[in-house]
């Protein structure tokens, strides 16, 4: 382990401090993404591995995306490589939550890579079928969350399997006392991981939008992980204590740094897109950090913008299939704002510039993240 090696060579315990390793994880992830990003973007562009505007199921969204056709995609490949590299360097690998987080990221990245590759190489297919993609997320998510439940059972730490609602200090939903309860926790955990994974994937539709929202949500979740791992802070705040959770703060740092490095290339006008190979694992890791820090329920506020995007897309599909009418001008929401200047109806002044939409949604994401941190004291 790099931490132990550095401690032995330097003769100081600096490299064991979480605060120091978080900073190093951010900087390492950012540096790796910059180093890997340039050659990867040039390689993708040379082989014309670019975005397809016809890959979207909805004709409205496909027409919106048509101007981005040909921009290199699958940038998530170097993003995830930077994330994993930084995490392996600076995280303690004797922490079960870190190891399971690495497995989750690698597994979802593989699913996303296959989906992207099929879209780009086979013009007759729109990537993996919804059932195939869901099956990949199901297998990986259930394995990781199931391993978490098995670890809690083996160590008799059933508090890991409890749900802690915000605002209710003295009420906890204990799920670890029975087989049915454990199964329910695994199901809830999978919904959290898969739901967040798909939320980031849906948000990945404008230059810099998904990356910026991911960084802001990861920063809030890193705070939750650190506080949850401190027995003194949890005792004062009246929140659950998970000793291993604080190490996930370092992994959150790697996530922030690698995503910031990707944003360097994805900032408007984007030189590369994330693709499913990046969006699925990023969202999955956010969901995993929420599970470890026992923030399953506040996650909707922590990642408000991605979940609003996911909800609008789901509601639009359901409404159109059930009634033949659309609730929103275009779903997900960012497309409606860009094309029509409104979510529910078209603005008489027309659409909003893409950069303006992105920055405004970043502001909403930042404010929702700050609001979620207030829940630490509002119990």
* Backbone structural class: mainly alpha
Main beta-sheet strand count, sense and barrel state: none
Tell me the β content. Answer: under 5%
Average the pLDDT over all residues and give the rounded result.
87
Low-pLDDT ranges: none
List the helices and strands and how they pair.
Elements: H1 2-10, H2 18-46, H3 59-65, H4 76-90, H5 96-121, H6 130-154, H7 179-203, H8 209-228, H9 231-237, H10 248-266, H11 276-292, H12 299-302, H13 304-323, H14 333-340, H15 354-374
List keywords for this structure.
0% strand
Structure, described:
This protein has helices at 2-10, 18-46, 59-65, 76-90, 96-121, 130-154, 179-203, 209-228, 231-237, 248-266, 276-292, 299-302, 304-323, 333-340, 354-374. It has 15 helices and no strands. The protein is globular and about 55 Å long. The chain is mainly α and 379 residues long. Helices cover 66% and strands 0% of the residues.
Condensed summary:
This protein has helices spanning 2-10, 18-46, 59-65, 76-90, 96-121, 130-154, 179-203, 209-228, 231-237, 248-266, 276-292, 299-302, 304-323, 333-340, 354-374.
